[in-house]
Amino acid sequence: MDTQELYVTADLAHIQLTEEEVSRLALQVDQMVAYFSKMSEFDVSGLEPTTHMQVSRSRVRADERRDIPGAHPDILLDAAEELEDRFIVIPNVL
Amino acid sequence: MLTFWKNVLENSPDAYEKAVRARDARIGAFLEFNPKRHLGNAAHKAASAEKHAVLAGLPFGVKDNIAVDGFRLSCGSRILEKFTSPYHATAVQRLMDVGAVPVGKTNLDEFGMGSSTDNSALGNTTNPWNEDHVVGGSSGGSAAAVAAGLVPFALGSDTGGSVRQPASFCGVYGLKPTYGTVSRFGLVAYASSLDVIGALSADLDVLQAVYEVMSGADAFDQTSIDVQSLGSRDAEAGGAASLGYRGKSPCLGVLKPDQLELSAEVSETYYACLEGFRSLGYEVKEISLSMLEYVAPVYYTIATAEASANLARYNGVRYGLRPDYAENPDELVRLSRDQGFGPEVKLRILLGTYVLRSGFQDQYYLRAQKIRTAIRQDFEAGFGEVDMILTPTFPRQAFKHGGEDMSPFEQKQADKFTASANLAGIPALNFPAGVLKGLPVGMQLLAPAFGEPRLLAAARDYATLYQPELAPGYERPAGEQ
Lengths: 94, 481
Hints:
The structure holds 2 protein chains of 2 kinds. Chain A has helices at 3-12, 19-36, 73-78; strands at residues 83-84, 87-88. Chain A is mainly alpha-helical. Chain A has a domain at 3-41. In chain A, strands 1-2 form a two-stranded antiparallel ribbon. By secondary structure, chain B is an alpha/beta fold. Chain B has a single domain, classed as Amidase signature (AS) enzymes (Alpha-Beta Complex), CATH 3.90.1300.10. Chains A and B meet through helix 1, helix 2 and helix 3 of A and helix 10, helix 11, helix 12, helix 13 and helix 14 of B.
């Protein structure tokens, strides 16, 4: 993978890379992608993809309110770094 | 020893806390430790269910990617360093309902990504057997806490071997249950089609009870399965037939020697272990898992792809670390992730993003999912011939800190024995099989889905030949007079 590809991928992943990181990660990413290419040796024709184990169908429940432990809005808001009334304050970004 | 553990929190919580802190100053197993925090919140011993009375009163450690109300939930990452969980994971709640008490949060490789626990951004954990060596990972803090006698059991999570590999490095039992048998409500997601909560202990009765209490359907986890009806204690009483063995004695599958590639110490222990099972009346049969060579590439393709999606939620907006200043919302997200994630997490997010990019999906992610089907079929064919499969847990013993004798890339390739169980969704157990050159060696038993009872039964059988040794200097539990 060339450096340009790495920057495109990092951009998609919302990760900002320093130059030092780019030179180190480029080698490691390359090594792993080359390792993944071993999969191309194997003939996959006729095989269905496995996405999950032991899940045969979606499970449904009654469409009604239920209390999830700890999921009360006030408790969740408390986890935010900074609050103003019931609004989450984020750094000034404009 | 169990009598001590059952009473220690009630009788001498202060002495226990002091003893654990003194020991843990050398080991670094816990990121947070507060044995009194939930002492009054667990079900009272007398009120706890008789069936699982063995757990009542026991302190336990929880890997810091599993939620415990009022404790931090850092995942070993700077991005969640100050985040406190507002609720209990279902697995933790169920253990508290039978009287067990969560006493602290254990160190891990950041977000579960690693084989050493050296990838934690928040603390250093070292092997109680030898401080120059890593504890394994990613549930390394949990393994160290058990091996150093800080707790009688601890919870971990296992995505590609993260319960079993540190258990093998520390000489304790480590169970990765069948995918879906333990609710993941409250487990921070890494790779959702592979993740499962497991347990580590030096005591098989405790391990079995923990597994039985944690397992079962949970309305808060769509993938959880009702397995209560399997009742392994009853199965044990019913003997071989109820455990599902095809013959009178269990048949163990073993791999061809050229598939193993082991260090001298692990190889020696493996063949001694095989002889041990033979002497116990087990039948041993060679099988071929032809897909084994594809396990690590398939595992890392799927795990990184799913991780890149699961970790997209850490954007510095609603919670977690964030910069003081950003030019625009996009930069806020990028800076938060740049400052919050460590190198291994960034590597895996980049890999996962790459294999999911348009144009590459068929070549990597989809192909990996198809080969996963072939791996699953490989195991199905294997379990058509044998009751369980015996492999080493890891090709070598605990390596040294800093990767000087095993590079991070070699560590990933070595996950093939453990990650195969995650790809196939089947249960697997690490059991201690010996100590060579001052470090433990662990072996792994694999069974078909829901075969936990036979794994535990086989480990019990093996314990009649080899009783796990405790780390030197830690033979007595912390705080025992």
